[in-house]
Amino acid sequence: MWVLLRSGYPLRILLSLRGEWMGRRGLPRSLVPGSPRRRYRKEALPAAEVPVLPVTATVIRQYLRTHGIPFQDGHSCLRAPSPFLGASQLKDQTGKTTSFSLFIDKTTGRFLCMTSLAEGSWEDFQASVEGRGDGDREGILLGEAPEAEDIEEIRRIWDRAVPLWELPELEEAQLTRVMFGLTKVTDDTLRRFNVRYLRPARSLIFPWFSPGSLGLRGLKLLQAESQGDRVRYVETTIPRPGAYHNLFGLSLISRRDTEVVLTSSELDSLALNQSTGLPTLALPRGTGCLPPALLPYLEQFRRIVLWLGDDLRSWEAAKLFARKLNPKRCSLVRPGDQHPCPLEALNRGLNLSRILRSTLPAWHKSIVSFRQLREEVLGELSNVEQVAGVRWSRFPDLNRFLKGHRKGELTVFTGPTGSGKTTFISEYALDLCTQGVNTLWGSFEISNVRLARIMLTQFAVGRLEDQLERYDEWADRFEDLPLYFMTFHGQQSIRTVIDTMQHAVYVYDICHVVIDNLQFMMGHEQLSTDRIAAQDYIIGAFRKFATESSCHVTLVIHPRKEDDDKELQTASIFGSAKASQEADNVLILQDRKLVTGPGKRYLQVSKNRFDGDVGVFPLEFNKSSLTFSIPPKSKARLKKIKDDNGLVAKKPSSGKKGAAVPQNSETCSNEAPNPYQPDPSKLSR
After folding, report:
1. Is the distance from CB of 631 to CB of 597 less than 8 angstroms?
2. Contacts of 252 (CB under 8 A, 6+ apart)
3. Could you tell me if 390 and 512 are in contact, meaning their C-beta atoms sit under 8 angstroms apart?
4. Which residue of 220, 273, 516, 623 has the fewest C-beta atoms within 10 A of its own C-beta?
C-alpha cells in the first residue's frame, strides 16, 4: 500500500482492513495507463556509462525521413507507423499507410505504440528500425504482467467496495457525502465513473481501467480526515505512486472528443463533468507532476483547459504543464475567489461553464501593455504568502528572512572548508522535498551513495546503524520522495549538466536543482584560460536556466582563501562579483567565535532580492542525526556581528538568547520571538 498526502509528501503506510491487507514494498512497473505493458528487449544494447541526453525534434524528423518512415507532426509527439505491427495492420488495400499508432515524444524520443503497447527509448526505436538487437520480429517484445500480489490485492479491495448509493444505512451515506463534499454530485455521475466506497477504510475507490478494455489496472483510495473546519484528503494508490499513472476518466473519452479539461483530483473531475458535460481527466499526481508518458493519450485534443486548483501553486503548475502540452492549445483557469476548484464551485452554486469561458490563453507572442499583466499583479497582491513560496519546516528562522523558497531564483551558498556545507544543504533541500518540491541533486564532490546515506539519516532523524531492522521502513518512505540524482561525479561540462537539468525539468517537473559544487565543473571549460571568465560563463548559464525553466537553482561555491580569524563576507565568494550579482539569495555558513565559549556555526543571509531582509541565526549540529537545528534558548547568545566591511557592531539587546538577528542594508532591528518551532513529530515521520 502506498499513500500520498494531498497537502504533504508521499510516504508509505500500512492500511489495515480487518487484518486482511498488509502494506509491503512495491516495484516500479508500467509508467503509463494501459494493459500489462510489453517492453522492448534491451539485452543487446550496451549499458550507458553516462545519462542519455535528450534528442531534439529536428534529429527525430531527420532520422525518420532518412529511413523513409512517414510521420505526422503532433502537439507534443510525432506519429508514425509502428514497426511492431504487420503490413496488413499498417496499410489499406491501395497500399497507403493508414495506421499512425506509434507516438514519439519530441523532447525525449521515447515511443509508445498504442496498438501493440510496445514502448521504449529512442535508442530502442533506432535498434528496431535498423535491425539491431534480436532481429526476430516476434522476439522484439517481451511480455510483462503485473505482479500477482498486486492484482490479487486490487481485486480483493474492489470486490469488497460497494457503490455509495447502495450503503445499507442512509445516515452513513449522507455523512460520507458531506465528508467528501459530494452532496451535489449525483448517483448517475458516480455510476458513470464507476466510483465505489470501501466501508472498512471509510474511503472512496477510484478505479484505473486499461484503455480500450475493462481490465482493472489499479486503484486509488481517498480518505477524508477532519482538521478543524477543514478537510484533508489522504490518497492511497495501488500500485505505488511512482507506478500509478492513471488518467481518471480516460475510459469515457471517445475518439471524436477534441476538447478536455484537466483537473488535479478525481472529485473535481466528477463535479466538472456533471456540471458542464465536457470530457474531464484527473491527473494521477495532482499538481506534483505530469509524466511525459501520459502525453500520447492527450494528443487527440485540439484544446486543453487546465483547472488545477484555487491557489498560486496550482497556477504555477498549470503554466508548467502547458509547456509540455504545447501552450498554443492550452487555456488556464486563474485561481480566485470566484474561480475556486470545480468541486467547491459546484457546492457554492457557481456557474462552471461561465468560469470555463473566462479562461486565459497559456501562450501569447509578446506582452504589449500592462493590460496583460494586471491580472498577474493582482494575483500576487492577493496571495502574498503564496507568492513568498514554500516555507521551510526545519528552519523557521530562514522563513523570517527569505520568506520561502520560490521558483525561478538562483541561490548561492558558501562556507569554509569542512564547515558542513554539503550536510546543511542536503537537509535544506530535503526539507523542501518532503513538502512536495521535486528536487534534482547534482553531487559532483561526493558519491550519490554517500549523499543518499546522509539524507536518509536526516530523514529518519537518527542513526539507522543502530536500528537496521527499521531500514526497509525508512527506505520505502524515502524512496517515494520526489527526489532524483544526477550520475555525474567530478569535473563535467556545463553544457552536459544544463542539458541534463532541462531533461529532468521536462520529464520529472523538477522545481529545485542543487549543484554541489561549482568548482568541480570548471575543468572541462575551454572558453578561456582565465578561470574567472569560465566561472562567470557557468553562473550566467545557471541564471538563464533558472529564469527560463522557472526552476530554483541552489549553487554551492567554495570561498576564496581567507584568514581563519576572519568571517566570510559576500566578497569572499570565489571569482568575480558576478556570482553575488546574479544571485537572488546569498547564504553563508559561518563559524563564529563566541566571547563566552567555543565556536558556533550560524547561517548568514547576506542577500535577499525578494524583500531585502538579511541577517543571521545560529545553528546547532546533531551528530547522530546529521541535522542542524536552532540551539536552545539557554545557550550563550552571539556577542558581535560584523558587517560587510569587517566592522564590529554591537547587537541590540533582544532579551532572547539564541534569537535570530534580522537586518537590512541600512539598519539592524529586532523582531518578535519566532513563533515557529520545529515539530519533532513531522521530522521523524
Report:
1. no
2. 192, 193, 279
3. no
4. 623
Which of 642, 268, 240 lies closest to 480, judged by CA?
A: 240
**The pLDDT of residue 381:** 76
Q: Has this prediction a pTM greater than 0.90?
A: no
3-state secondary structure of 39: strand
* Nearest Cα to Cα of residue 510 among 543, 486, 489: 486
What confidence tens digit (pLDDT) does each residue in 458-502 have?
A: 999 988 888 899 999 999 899 989 999 998 887 888 888 999 999
Angstrom distance (rounded) from CA 551 to CA 500: 14
Cell of residue 215, nine digits: 481490465
Paired with 405 in beta bridges are 390
The candidate with the shortest Cα–Cα distance to 456, out of 491, 436, 480, 488, is: 480
> pLDDT per residue over 378-423, tens digit each?
777 777 777 888 999 999 999 999 999 999 999 999 988 888 899 9
The residue to which cell 564532490 is assigned: 445
HSE-up (13 A, CA, CB side) for residue 10: 27
Is residue 610 within 8 Å of 403, Cβ to Cβ?
yes
Q: Using DSSP, state whether 361 is helix, strand or coil.
A: strand
Residue with cell 473546519: 229
Q: Which three cell numbers stand for residue 637?
A: 547568545
Single-letter amino acid code for the residue at 234? V
SS3 410: strand
The predicted-structure confidence for 326-376, as pLDDT tens digits, reads as follows 999 999 998 888 889 999 999 999 999 999 998 988 876 555 566 666 767
C-alpha 521/C-alpha 488 separation (Å) is 10
Give the whole-angstrom CA distance, residue 207 versus residue 196: 9
